[in-house]
Amino acid sequence: MSVKLRLRRTGAKNDPCFRVVATDTRAPRDGRFLEILGWYDPQRTGENFKLDLERVTHWTDQGAIPSETVRSLIKKARKSSATATA
């Protein structure tokens, strides 16, 4: 089974909100998933996403491939967590 980290759309029409999930690549975008890893709200200002970096690392160590958007969110989360601890 090939696992991918990608966005799952939630929210109302014209008001998108997303969950970051680990899912089988064969599953539809809003279909079955293995685990919720965080959320992303593109219309929110300021802090518009949250990720569980420990679980993201677990899935990437297992061979999960993040989508481009999720990859950029992971990069931002790691950057912000590094500055918060420094």
Q: What is the topology, as strand order, of the major beta sheet?
A: 4-3-2-1-5
CATH topology: S16 Ribosomal Protein, Chain: A
Would you identify the CATH architecture? 2-Layer Sandwich
- Mean pLDDT over the full residue set: 93
Domain module tally: 1
How many strands in all?
5
Cα separation of the termini: 38 Å
Shape: flat
Radius of gyration: 13 Å
Structural class comes to alpha+beta
Encode the helix/strand succession as letters: EEEEHEH
Main sheet? 5 strands, mixed
Can you say what the CATH homologous superfamily is? Ribosomal protein S16
- Can you tell me the CATH class? Alpha Beta
**How much helix is in the residues?**
25-40%
Low-confidence stretches: none
Strand content: 35-45%
Instruction: Count helical runs.
Output: 2
What does this structure look like?
With 86 residues, the chain is an alpha+beta fold. It has one domain (3-68): S16 Ribosomal Protein, Chain: A (2-Layer Sandwich). The chain contains 2 helices and 5 strands, in the order ββββαβα. A 5-stranded mixed sheet has the order 4-3-2-1-5. A hairpin with an 8-residue loop joins β3 and β4. The termini are far apart.
